[in-house]
Design brief:
This protein is mainly α and 37 residues long. It has one domain (9-36). The chain is flat and about 35 Å long. The mean pLDDT is 79. It is built from 2 helices and no strands.
């Protein structure tokens, strides 16, 4: 299921380059939160 979401995100990034910057920030925040847990 998570892989499906990643594929959708990659598809959107290809269509909207500006979105990729926000997605990178979200991924970094997500990884930092996982480290804290």
């Amino acid at each position: 299921m998570s892989l499906n979401i990643i594929h959708q995100v990659v598809h959107q990034v290809k269509n909207k380059p500006l979105l990729s910057h926000h997605i990178i920030i979200i991924l970094e925040v997500f990884h930092s939160q996982r480290r804290n847990l």
